[in-house]
Amino acid sequence: MSLSLILGCLWVLVATAVAILPLRLQYGPGLALLATAPVLIGVIWWEQGWIWGVLVTLVFLSIFRKPVAYLLRRLRNRGEKLREDYE
Questions:
Q1: Most CB atoms closer than 10 Å: which of 12, 27, 54, 74?
Q2: How many Å apart are CA 3 and CA 71, to the nearest integer?
Q3: What pLDDT was estimated at residue 59?
Q4: Which residues of 54-73 are buried (b: 16+ CB within 10 A; e: fewer)?
Q5: Does residue 79 surpass a pLDDT of 90?
Q6: Is 22 left (phi over 0), alpha (psi -120 to 50) or beta?
Q7: Interior CA angle at 15 toward 3 and 50, to 5°?
Q8: What is the rounded CA–CA span in Å between residue 64 and residue 51?
Q9: What spatial distance separates the first Cα and last Cα of the chain, rounded to whole Å?
């Protein structure tokens, strides 16, 4: 198993450990996991190919479904607000 997949497995274990913490203690580690995920996904995609890249991306979206949905909602609302400003 390559180093990138080992790091990916460790990332999932750390994410699971963070999920066990009380909500007030999850923000810092959760943001760190959220920030490192795109880099790790990119490295896995590069080294292992597109099949593993898609699988890892789906795992990431499954684990962080609520924060990702929140960010997408914020981006969509911001785009609508920008369009309203120009009309």
A1: 12
A2: 30
A3: 87
A4: eebbebbeebbeeeeeeeee
A5: no
A6: beta
A7: 45
A8: 20
A9: 55
Tens-digit pLDDT profile for residues 13-72: 999 999 899 989 988 998 899 899 999 999 999 999 999 999 999 988 888 888 888 888
* Chain centroid offset of residue 68 CA: 7
Angle ∠(64,67,72) on CA atoms, nearest 5: 115
Alpha helices in the chain (DSSP H): 3-20, 23-48, 50-63, 65-86
3-state secondary structure of 64: coil
Query: Which residues, 6+ apart, have CB-to-CB distance to 53 below 8 Å?
Result: 41, 44, 45
